Recover the amino acids of this structure.
C-alpha cells in the first residue's frame, strides 16, 4: 500500500511520507526521504529534528487511514494534542537521508489515541509518545 496521499488528510507537498512499509492492527511503519524544500523550516542541507513530530503525526494518520479504509469508513481529519517523552540523538535530519517512522498504538478509543513513535535512520534514533484527537463522524440528525 503505497498511496500514502489517499490515506491521510493532507495533499500536495504536505504529504511528507513516501511509502508504507508494513502495518498490522496495532502499528504501522512508513518511510520518507528528508526533503529540503523549506516546508518544515529546513534548507538544502538539513531539517530540524523537531520536524520529526510531523513525520510521526503523519504516520499515525496513515495508520488511522489504513484502519478506516479496511472498515469501509472515510478518511477523517485528526489533530495532534501533544507530545510526551520526546528524545532524540540528532538536532537535525540530513536532506536526502532515508528515515523509517514506526507508530504503535498504546491506547485508542473513538476519538482519542496515544501512540508510541520511533524514527530511525543512519545515525538517527528519535522517540516520542503522541496524543491525538479525531472528531467523531458527523451523523445525520435523528440517528444514533
Amino acid at each position: 500500500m503505497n498511496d500514502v496521499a489517499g490515506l491521510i488528510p493532507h495533499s500536495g507537498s504536505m504529504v511528507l511520507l513516501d511509502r508504507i512499509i508494513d502495518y498490522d492492527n496495532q502499528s504501522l511503519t512508513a518511510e520518507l526521504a528528508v526533503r529540503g524544500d523549506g516546508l518544515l523550516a529546513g534548507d538544502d542541507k538539513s531539517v530540524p529534528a523537531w520536524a520529526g513530530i510531523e513525520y510521526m503525526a503523519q504516520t499515525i494518520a496513515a495508520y488511522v487511514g489504513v484502519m478506516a479504509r479496511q472498515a469501509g469508513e472515510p478518511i477523517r481529519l485528526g489533530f495532534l494534542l501533544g507530545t510526551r517523552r520526546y528524545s532524540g540523538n540528532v538536532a537535525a535530519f540530513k536532506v536526502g537521508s532515508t528515515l523509517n517512522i514506526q507508530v504503535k498504538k498504546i491506547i485508542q478509543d473513538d476519538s482519542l489515541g496515544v501512540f508510541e513513535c520511533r524514527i530511525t535512520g543512519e545515525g538517527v534514533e528519535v522517540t516520542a509518545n503522541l496524543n491525538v484527537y479525531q472528531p467523531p463522524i458527523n451523523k445525520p440528525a435523528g440517528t444514533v
